[in-house]
Each structure stands twice: as structure tokens, then as C-alpha cells.
Amino acid sequence: MIKFLLFIILFIFAFGFLFGFSFTRAISRFLFGAPTSTRKTSSNQQKAKQTTKKSDPTPPQKIIMRDEGEYVDFEEIKE
After folding, report:
1. Quick one: residue 20, left, alpha or beta (phi over 0 = left, psi -120 to 50 = alpha)?
2. What is the model's pLDDT at position 65?
3. Which of 28, 30, 68, 78 sits most deeply, having the most CB atoms within 10 A of its CB?
4. 77: helix, coil or strand?
């Protein structure tokens, strides 16, 4: 019985801690705004990104010839 009570008390403390942490974090975000990343990417990283964008091959486009497929007459059905 004592183990069960200790488990319940521990659960209440853990729940209270998590709730308090979430609440204080929400209040601090409301008052001070969400933290933003202040790191700037170096010029080498930017150049690497640009070269990878240029070297990416464009996907081949499928060209449909006139003799492919079948023409279907359109019929409008009114109810």
C-alpha cells in the first residue's frame, strides 16, 4: 500500500513539474517572444547551397505524341 501511495505522490509531483514548466515557458514566450536563431550562415555554406541548386538535374519532361492515347467524345449528363 505504501508503494502505491508513493507512486501516486511521485506522479503528482511529476505532473505538477511538467505543468509548471509548460506554463512558465508559455508566459515567457508571450512576454519576450519566441527565441530566434541568431546564427548567420557563412559565405562558404551559401556558396555550397547555390552550387547544389545549380547542379541538380531537372527532371525529364514526358512528351506525349499525337498518336498516343485515344480521343473520347464528351457527353454532358443532366439530371
Report:
1. alpha
2. 76
3. 28
4. coil
